[in-house]
Amino acid sequence: MSWKPLRQLGLAVLASALLPSLASAEQTLRIGYQKSSTLLTLLKARGSLEQRLQAQGIRISWHEFPSGLPLLEALNLGNVDVSADVADTVPVFTQAAGAKLTYFAREAPSPTAQAILVPADSPLKSLADLKGKRVAVTKAAGSHYLLIQALAKAGLTFKDITPAYLIPADGRAAFENHKVDAWVTWDPYVASAQRQQRARILADGSELASYQRYYLAGSDYAQAHPDVLQQLYLALREAGAWTKANPEAAARILGPLWGNLDSVTVQQANARRSYDVQPVKPQNLAEQQRIADAFYREGLLPKAVDAKDVNLFEPLAH
């Protein structure tokens, strides 16, 4: 089965046909996000997405999730309409559960924005030293794939470690209290641990995991509302460009929302993220297939996944 494009030919006609009904009956766009969903967090804080969509009679409700997997599970169940960015690994787990997904945007790779952390005084010096150690990682997150690839590089598998599957908040607590030997996570948690706990990076995603983040929608919603996805795509592109051009201003907004992180920590985290929002192309699914195959080989997926069995939203010129 191959990827299925959602074409936008005649979008203007479709949008104009929808406007009368939108004006007479307000609709709600339900957006799921997590703390690391930088661009949608900024859009939420600044109210700019509401301003963009209110002319179409669309209001927004925001729903925060602790990590990407429960977020996409909610998307699959129809509890949210669109998902903020999740790591490239998360959709393959959701596909294995039978979800019908539409990719509508991606952020270009940010390999250094996730890392394997150890305490400053840890005796672990190389990836091979992870053998026999207890490692905290969030299931299905980009960091999960990074750990698989890092272990493989060292000639190890998950059978050689004791994984502790923890959401980021619990992973941080376990790391701080020396309940685990290493913690695999992503920014802003990486930057925060570096600055507050003096954590040391054992390895980041360079040459291991490219770490692209994807934005998704429920396929039924995407089919019915391509005009909304178009506006959301454009808003994300603008927010990404603004964030890179205004690091200090972005940090002032994000710091309080990320647990009162100081400006330097936020800027350090954001410097490692590309925030370059692009369309999702069929060739991007090749890496998705490699990710799916890696998880299946490790026995972490219940069945093989065809990464091409998704819809791809095609935005208008950007």
Automatic annotation (TrEMBL):
Name of one Pfam family that matches: NMT1
Domain Solute-binding protein family 3/N-terminal residue range list: 28-257
Keywords: Signal, Transport
InterPro entries xrefs: ABC_SsuA_sub-bd, Solute-binding_3/MltF_N, SsuA/THI5
Signal peptide: 1-25
Principal cellular location given in the protein's record: periplasm
Record's keyword annotation contains Transport: yes
Superkingdom of source: Bacteria
Molecular functions (GO terms): ATPase-coupled transmembrane transporter activity
General function of this protein: Part of a binding-protein-dependent transport system for aliphatic sulfonates. Putative binding protein.
Family of the protein in this entry: Belongs to the bacterial solute-binding protein SsuA/TauA family.
PANTHER family: ALIPHATIC SULFONATES-BINDING PROTEIN-RELATED (PTHR30024:SF42)
Protein name from the UniProt record: Putative aliphatic sulfonates-binding protein
Organism whose genome encodes this protein: Pseudomonas inefficax
